[in-house]
Design a protein that fits this description.
Length: about 475
């Protein structure tokens, strides 16, 4: 199935979209990657959705991609006698380990492992920042805070702590259980929530053991600060603007988005822009003009993919949400000024290896020879991802004898990912490349194409041709 665009679309499955008919319709409308949100729904529903997604592969001769998004360590307060309380600016409010129900003076905050790190002047944001508290006194089992604004505080609301790297594992016991089940389902990507530093990614990779690629969700200031070291070890990045917008000033989020996309380009890592992209389509049939501009600007910035969350999971119009996003991307990519690659190349210079040299050359040849496609043979997908980094103006056809690799590459910018037989020699390589491109109607007769591969064939990481 050929897409008429290079940027990809992720769509979250949920109550509004967890049926074979809806999933197939979203796939046809343009969904490239299906996201399973392990913060919601039960394991059996996720398992059934994976089966529904994989059933499309044979019908459409097109690899599908599934991303499992783990919940992560979310901090929460306890419950109140009256379910909620009104807090007044200037008053004090205590968080403690007492299990009694809360009132206007205090509430349970059942996270003893972090109390020592929460020193005076630390800011706590409750309920997505609607309540701001500043610590004025710290104890081993209590925190006395000053209320910085009037507001309502209620049961089990989340707490964000922007300026502190917390001594908590990025994987909860629930996450570890969900991870094992997701890997058993055969998911292609795993997204790790609330990443703070590179070590968080290293830990989960040890558990995954190359069974899936790992995407770091950037939603904390500490992750923004450590973005380069995280990029060194992560396979991809998701800019999760929801929690990021809570923990950082709202006006800084667009700048951070642009900067992270640029860093991902430099490191050759796929990047996803997520959260509230077409939020109004949860209820409305058309998005706001501001939302359309938000999606368009992410494409202009050079993101690999944009993501639908509530729009496709719980919204009234999951299929139309995908269709609208698809149309916006196609419209932007028709703009001749969409992506000025040469200006980007001048900004980013780094030491290159053999694969870099081959892909650079392939891009240059494709541009000068007016080729219609660059075809990459890749067992691991690394050459295909490296080619996508170039943001070549022609389509990239990623061929792999490894079905899991073919599935993973569906997330990557500009890649038409195809599962094929392996080539045994150069003649095989050319035949498979031309036959696949022709059968899938990705090129026309007499079109020029560029092919990259590695000799000997079938060995990962050996791109030299």
């Amino acid at each position: 199935m050929k897409r008429n665009r290079k940027a990809k679309i992720l769509a979250t499955l949920g109550p509004a979209s967890s049926s074979s008919n809806i999933i197939e319709a979203m796939f046809i409308a343009g969904c490239d990657v299906f996201r399973l949100n392990f913060s919601h729904d039960d394991i059996e529903n996720h398992r059934k959705n994976v089966e529904r997604i994989r059933s499309l592969e044979k019908k459409y001769d097109h690899s599908t991609c599934v991303l499992a998004d783990l919940q992560g360590p979310k901090l929460r307060i306890g419950i109140f006698k009256n379910n909620e309380e009104e807090l007044k600016k200037g008053n004090t409010f205590q968080l403690d380990l007492n299990n009694d129900q809360g009132d206007q003076k205090r509430v349970n905050f059942p996270h003893p492992e972090i109390y020592e790190n929460l020193t005076p002047n630390t800011i706590l944001l409750v309920n997505d920042g609607r309540i701001r508290l500043q610590i004025i006194e710290q104890g081993k089992d209590f925190l006395i805070t000053e209320i910085l604004n009037d507001g309502i505080i209620s049961n089990n609301k989340g707490v964000n702590i922007p300026d502190v790297i917390l001594p908590i594992d990025s994987l909860t016991s629930k996450d570890k259980s969900d991870l094992n089940k997701a890997l058993d389902m055969g998911v292609d990507w795993v997204a790790l929530s609330f990443v703070q530093q590179a070590e968080d990614i290293i830990k989960i990779k040890k558990l995954i053991k190359n069974k899936a690629l790992v995407m770091a969700k950037i939603e904390k200031p500490s992750a923004v600060k450590n973005i380069d070291t995280i990029l060194e070890v992560a396979d991809g990045i998701m800019i999760a603007r929801g929690d990021l917008g809570v923990e950082m000033p709202t006006e800084k989020v667009p700048i951070i988005q642009k900067n992270i996309i640029n860093r991902c380009r430099f490191f050759g890592r796929p990047v996803v822009v997520a959260t509230q992209m077409l939020e109004s389509m949860i209820t409305n049939f058309v998005p706001t003009r501001a939302e359309a501009s938000d999606v368009a600007n992410a494409i202009y910035d050079g993101t690999d993919a944009v993501m639908l969350s509530g729009e496709s999971a719980i919204g009234k119009h999951p299929i139309e949400s995908v269709n609208v996003m698809n149309n916006i991307i196609e419209s932007v990519e028709k703009d001749k000024d969409n992506f000025d690659l040469e200006n980007e190349e001048k900004k980013f210079k780094r030491k290159i290896n053999n694969t870099d040299a081959i892909t650079n050359a392939a891009y240059s040849i494709a541009r000068n020879a007016e080729a219609k496609a660059i075809i990459t043979f890749s067992v691991s997908g690394q050459t295909t991802m490296r080619m996508a980094k170039e943001r070549a103006p022609v389509q990239i056809i990623g061929l792999s004898p490894n079905l899991t690799t073919s599935r993973k590459m569906q997330l990557v910018w500009g890649v038409n990912s195809c599962h094929t037989e392996d080539a045994h020699n150069t003649t095989d390589m050319v035949k498979i490349a031309c036959t696949t491109a022709k059968n899938k109607q990705l090129v026309k007769p007499d079109d020029n194409i560029i092919i990259t591969a590695g000799v000997p064939f079938g060995n990962a990481g050996s791109t030299n041709l």
